[in-house]
Amino acid sequence: MLGSVALFVFVPFCKIKCTYCDFNTYAHLSRWIEPYADALAREISWRGERVAQGDAAPLRAKTIYFGGGTPSLLPFPLIEKILHALQNSFALVADAEITLEANPGSADVSRWRDLRALGVNRLSLGAQSFDEAVLRRLNRGHTVADTLETFDAARRAGFDNINLDLIYGLPLQTLADWRATLERAVALAPEHLSLYALQVEEGTGLAHQIARGKYPMPDDDLAAEMYELAEETLDAAGYAQYEISNWARRDVFRISKFEVVDRTENLKFASRHNLTYWRNEPYLGFGAGAHSCFGGARYWNISSPVEYIERSGRGESVVAGGEGIPREVEMAETMILGLRLNEGIAFEAFAARYGEDARLRYARPLREAREFGLVEMSEWRVWLTPRGRLLSNEVFWRLLPDATVQNAA
Amino acid sequence: MESTRIRNFCIIAHIDHGKSTLTDRLLEATGTIDKREMVEQVMDQMDLEREKGITIKAKAVRMFYRARDENEYELNLIDTPGHVDFTYEVSRALAACEGAVLVVDATQGIEAQTLANLYLALDHNLAIVPVVNKIDLPSARPDDIAHDIERLLNVPNDQIIRASAKTGAGVDRVLEAIVARIPAPVADATLPLRALIFDSKYDAYKGVVAYVRVVDGELHKNNKLRLMSSGLEVDALEVGLFRPKMVAGDSLGAGEVGYVATGLKSVREIQVGDTLTHADHPAHVPVPGFRPAKPMVFAGFYPVETNDYPLLRDALDKLKLNDASLTYEPETSAALGFGFRCGFLGLLHMDIVQERLEREYDLNLIATAPSVEYHVLKHDGSIVTVDNPAEMPGGEEIAKIEEPWMHIQVFTPQEYIGPIMDLVVQRRGAFDKMEYLDAQRVLLTYFIPLSELIIDFYDQLKSRTRGYASLDYTFADYRASDLVKMTILVNDEPVDALSMIVHKDYAYARGAALCKRLKEVIPQQLFPVPIQAALGGRIIARETIRALRKDVLAKCYGGDVTRKRKLLEKQKAGKKRMKRLGTVEIPQDAFMAVLKLGD
Ligand SMILES: Nc1nc2c(ncn2[C@@H]2O[C@H](COP(=O)(O)OP(=O)(O)OP(=O)(O)O)[C@@H](O)[C@H]2O)c(=O)[nH]1
Ligand code: SF4
Ligand SMILES: [Mg+2]
What we know:
The complex is a heterodimer.
Chain A: E1 4-11, H1 33-52, E2 60-68, H2 76-89, E3 91-102, H3 109-118, E4 122-128, H4 132-137, H5 144-156, E5 162-168, H6 175-187, E6 192-197, H7 205-211, H8 220-236, E7 239-243, E8 246-249, H9 272-278, E9 283-286, E10 291-294, E11 297-301, H10 305-313, E12 319-324, H11 327-340, E13 345-346, H12 347-354, H13 358-361, H14 363-371, E14 375-377, E15 381-384, H15 386-390, H16 392-399, H17 402-408
Parallel strand pairs in A: 1-2, 1-9, 2-3, 3-4, 4-5, 5-6
Antiparallel strand pairs in A: 6-8, 7-8, 10-11, 11-12, 13-15, 14-15
Helix pairs in contact in A: 1-2, 1-10, 6-8, 11-16, 14-16
Chain B: E1 6-13, H1 19-29, H2 47-52, E2 59-66, E3 72-79, H3 87-94, E4 99-105, H4 112-123, E5 127-133, H5 142-153, E6 161-162, H6 171-181, E7 194-203, E8 207-216, E9 219-220, E10 224-227, E11 233-235, E12 238-242, E13 246-249, E14 251-252, E15 257-261, E16 275-278, E17 297-303, H7 309-322, E18 327-333, E19 337-344, H8 347-360, E20 365-367, E21 374-378, E22 383-386, E23 398-413, H9 417-426, E24 430-436, E25 441-449, H10 450-453, H11 457-464, E26 470-481, E27 483-490, E28 493-494, E29 500-503, H12 507-521, E30 529-535, E31 538-545, H13 560-576, E32 579-581, E33 584-586, H14 588-592
Parallel strand pairs in B: 1-3, 1-4, 4-5, 5-6
Antiparallel strand pairs in B: 2-3, 7-8, 7-16, 8-15, 9-14, 10-11, 10-16, 12-13, 12-15, 17-19, 17-20, 18-19, 21-22, 21-23, 23-25, 23-26, 24-25, 27-28, 27-29, 27-30, 30-31, 32-33
The complex binds guanosine-5'-triphosphate, iron/sulfur cluster (SF4) and magnesium ion.
């Protein structure tokens, strides 16, 4: 896959702001949507040219991901415009995965059909919960019925690869509530599920509500139980967990008797775009606050959408900052990201990439993590145990090189 | 200058009543410091002083003042700290003066250290210039406060100056009163030199610098000097005065305040309170000095990184150069490794030393809970002093344990007498007496074990009196008590640095409270951690820290990688700041948990 990248497009607009959300996204900025799409198209063409410099051919791209925010808020012509900009600047592989994130509330089959025809082949729907009270409490701005209708419309329009986002560990949420949501999600038979453990982030509406005593702080142990319940429920329903927070229907591309069924490569509906991140491979991000990782460096755009538009309009760079990734840090990140996958890190692949044996370099952290029952190892690979998935940070921080810790302190 | 034109005085008050701010105005009014160079509390130069807004060390400055009588006077001012831990600094300063400006906050009135410092000044026969400060504040009650002072000092009301160190109102009257009411030093330039050392500091270029008040005779640059108690001879490499920075000159005359640079390498060679005289023409009788400050509370300081031990030793050596009241000696702890047992004047002093070590020497320290010094009489007739609970001999060896008791004075509006009584009784205190200062305010005095005083007594006092009560204390005596050693076990291992000495009747309650508190401050580990309190071999309290089951489980996509790594780096750095005991990581707070048990 050398010389191929994943492309990410960030859309910082939402209909309303959910109480728990600390993303770089804004309600009431709809008048900026059009200029924003123009700015995106400019950034894409400009960067497409730049990264292709030296190479005769444009860079190959294997996935496109419209994330947000709520990309589905963009009118169809704008999505089309951005996609065309991408197609003009990069060489999309034939079976490229093109995902669009959407929030429930758009049951218009013909619109979904248009998007499908445009080439969007994967839909990620922010269902979050099948509990009306929860949706209201989080100010999600949609109902369960909206979710069902939107899902149904997308299916009818031909979307055969749909992800549902769910959130758990909420204030007042019980294990039974969570079970009900899981069951209703599974009943829809989506190809993919993404489960997000709520983090009460500073400065969010939810954090204020908790501080004021309106809601209790969610209990960590209960959230752990919810996670375990999800693992059991989804496994029983035919989903393979392939990453700490991600499950794909257990459909596989091919099975020979030498192949392990759950190996991520073979999972037909594993998110190929996100796999790029977890394998620490290059990607380019476009839009306000978007991050890119390319050519040994990571850099990020200015996060204010309005400033992004203005700078772009003046023909100025929209990049806000960046960091070179020293080899030691890159190796640690590869380990940390790779361990998020159930298949873990293959020693041979690591050695092929870095010319070093991960078992030696990380002997001590791996030994400690094993003693605490957080990882398991075979001759070929190392992976997180179920307990390790719940306590992954306890493994991850141990893998960081010491020098960077000094800088952080 | 002729000694009749010299005035040596200090400014004393309860903490925060405005001593340093008044000093600012005096420096300004006398043109010692230009208005443009003025900053608030200009004398408080130490970083920690500026940050905490308090004076820690007493400081001297010389000013020249043309009085209304058209004469020019030399005023030697010493600004003193108000906090009770540094009372010792005040008494040193008093020994160098003939008078004291007593500042009283017009909103707060007379408080505990107002009285304590006033009595110290009266003990030294100083002339007192009372000033009611902060009259600019809307809540000021200058007349009431002046009335209180009038009764206390038995001075006519019109002698009590109303001033504002903020606006400068009344400052001219303060200056005139200093000239008029404080006597000139009785000094005889013809007698052999006697100079009282009231402070000292270490200077990288000048060596040990002694702060002196010349009582008799004259002190010239290059004089050969002798320390009267030790007989040590030194050269006066430099002589000078404070304006407020050190300014070199040729000599210090009788009655004057200034400094002598000795070139000595360690302040330990110079005893504050000693007298300097001429080596070739010595005086016979030293100036009556004062007792050196004795540390009252003791704590172990340990580097978190064991490699930092030599660094800690050097840092303590250097701090000691400017802080004679700090003591330390090496000690080892099974739990914490190599460190030092340090002695302090009080908890604020301890805090300040720890902060300076961490900040100025970039050390990362674990401090154990402070302890007092116990006198232990053993059955074999020997007496040992124990300032580290871990070193308390076994119960079967002990015939008797004595602990230091303090005499405390609490100044309070009368409606809080009840709650204060309750608190003192809970802390094993004994009532001494009660005096009404006026219809509303009383002065309560008690005897109380020092070990109880250092366990958040002051915070409790403040919270039970809504901040109205103030506290002063002095050492009273050693008294026998029924004390036992309580051991704390973390993950089934005794942690010597967490042991404490408690009164038998309090052991169960304290043990339970401490286990509970430790459970709150020790972060969850990857396995359950039992915490137990034991007397002898008997467990008297137990808590269990549940194992950590889940940490942050957030999603992680492209944009988050850098952020996520930063969070992990922080987590890792946090672990580094904790002390590992076996497999359990213990933060600094845990060692201080005993101080915050509540009641
Ligand atoms: N309004 C008003 N505030 C004052 C006055 N004098 C001092 N203050 C304020 O009171 C606080 C304490 O003043 P300091 O001069 O530091 O008091 P201090 O007595 O030197 O305190 P310690 O050295 O810590 O005992 C500061 O915030 C001053 O600004 C005054 O006359 N009026
Ligand atoms: S829809 Fe998603 S991005 Fe938008 S406010 Fe809600 S949580 Fe945030
Ligand atoms: Mg002060």
